[in-house]
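ARCHIVE RECORD
Type: protein–small molecule complex
Small molecule: heme C
Source of inputs: curated submission
Record status: active
Notes field left blank by submitter.
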Amino acid sequence: MLCARLHLVFVSCIVLIGCKKPADSEPSVVWNVPETPQHFGAQFIPNDNPLSALKWELGRQLFFDPQLSSDGSTSCSSCHLPSHAFGGSSPTAPGVGGALGTRNVPVLSNIGWHPYFTREGGVPTLEMQVLVPIQETNELNHNIVLIAEQLNSDSLYIKMTQDAFGVDPSPYTITRALSAFERTLISGTSAYDRWLEGDASALSQAALRGQDVFESIGCGQCHSGPQFSDFELRNNGLFVVYPDSGLYRLTLNPDDIGKFKTASLRNLSYSAPYMFDGSVATLDDVINQYAQGGSNHFNQAAAIQPFEITAAERMDLKAFLGALDDPQFVAWGETLAP
Ligand code: HEC
Ligand code: HEC
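STRUCTURE (tokenized, with ligand):
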């Protein structure tokens, strides 16, 4: 990963040099992209990458295309499964040649609201994040310059890229199209969202009680705001000894061992198993882990404290977390494969 990061700096020079301005005659909103609920606030969208219908089509095509991997076997969607809110279904997912990484595949629902990317937050934009899986040997194991060459021998990609950007395929167009597509993975039609928008019947009595449990046992101290994350990097007490040191990999500061980006709690029913390594199988296991007050790692956040929870409160808490699932979003995602 560190090696990949150095390489990233090098390749990003190629990407950032860019080419021409994006075509400005396209509509700014695509017909079948989910709407942003008002309570989400605005996404950060870089000035050089506004959404257009044609760019979105190109990004969608690329996201599902195994040509992005060195042996033609794996696409972004092989790991970020639409049926799992664009996350994984097992602790880790195989890349090229069946190579397994060590991290759980995160969901991409509402990824456009994250302030930084990967589990230790080391990548500042979605545009740059595209380079990480492309270069990672246990993911796509490829090179964006070679991918651009390949796409330049494919008449469909030449046409789609010309239509969207007015230029031929390049690292610039690949990173812009994929990230524009990712920003439309908007999950804002859960029961909880409908309840916030004024539909009082959208949350069951159990879910409403569960919301109180969620706050009273302290979950909301970190899992706050419309995405149920403040995105701070923290050690949530998963291990006494961390097999993956998290933020420490970037800073080499021992105070950062075991710190990971606070996860969103949306779409949990689709995204088991949990945590950075997928080591926690079920929501009951998650609750048990927190209830015991974590593992007492020396960096463990002070907000992780032991608590008692009755069987009825546990049911209510799970009903509340279930109200953050968005089946409508998942059903839409499943229609996207070209
Ligand atoms: C082999 C499986 C695999 C493939 C293929 C893959 N990813 Fe990922 N993706 C992961 C894993 C694992 C992580 C977590 C990595 C980390 O934290 O270091 C991740 C992280 C991400 C993130 C950051 C999420 C966050 O919460 O910060 C984004 C965005 C993303 N991938 C997009 C893509 C795109 C776009 C592609 C295709 C170009 C792709 N991924 C291909 C497994 C994969
Ligand atoms: C001190 C801050 C903090 C508190 C309090 C906290 N969490 Fe977390 N939570 C985190 C962090 C950080 C992560 C990411 C850990 C990782 O990637 O391994 C996380 C991850 C999770 C995940 C995994 C999500 C996924 O997609 O893998 C779940 C579920 C979760 N928390 C639920 C809860 C519940 C329920 C509570 C209340 C009992 C709670 N959390 C309290 C910080 C906190």
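CURATOR ANNOTATION: The CA atoms of residues 8 and 131 lie 7 Å apart.
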